[in-house]
Amino acid sequence: MLSKELYIRKNCYRVERCRFCKSTKVVKNGKRPTKVKLPSLSEQPLRFRLYKQRYFCRECHRTFSAKTKLTQCHRSITRRARQVIHSLAKEASPVKKIAK
User: Fold this and answer.
1) Which of 21, 47, 40 is nearest to 84 (CA)?
2) What is the C-alpha separation between 50 and 92, in angstroms, rounded?
3) Using CA atoms, how far apart are residues 88 and 98, in angstroms rounded to an integer?
4) Which ranges of the chain does DSSP label H, i.e. alpha helix?
5) N or C: which end of the chain has fewer CB within 10 A?
6) Most trustworthy range by pLDDT among 15-24, 31-40, 60-69, 77-86
């Protein structure tokens, strides 16, 4: 069995406004690593580490992460992997196959 591959990707775009109060007084506040699951490639699970930029609002004193189109908010599975899982579930595939 092959070992799991772990690719690293940085989420790098600049946030202009606070998500909560819409203030422009936003500064970078570190990065948060998340492990994201991709659809399997020839029965081998693929995962990579996505570093999401964290921000701090100096107006409302709240922190938040940059958004990405790759995953939904508060999820660790890509949108494409979710589609594959849904299609396998519709085909009445065994749970063990879906989990891979």
Assistant:
1) 40
2) 32
3) 6
4) 79-90, 95-99
5) N
6) 15-24
How far, CA to CA in Å, does 50 sit from each of 66, 91, 93? Answer: 11, 31, 30
Pairing relationship of beta strands 44-57 and 26-41 according to DSSP bridges: antiparallel
**Which token pair is 10?**
């940085």
Share of the chain above pLDDT 70, in %: 74
Residue in the block written with tokens 């007084």: 25
pLDDT digits (tens, 9 = 90+) for 11-38: 567 789 999 999 999 999 999 888 887 7
Two structure tokens written together for 99: 């989990």
Q: What pLDDT was estimated at residue 57? A: 97
State the pTM of this model: 0.65
Residue 50 burial (CB < 10 Å; 0-12/13-18/19+)?
buried
- 39: CB partners within 8 A, 6+ apart: 46, 78, 80, 81, 84
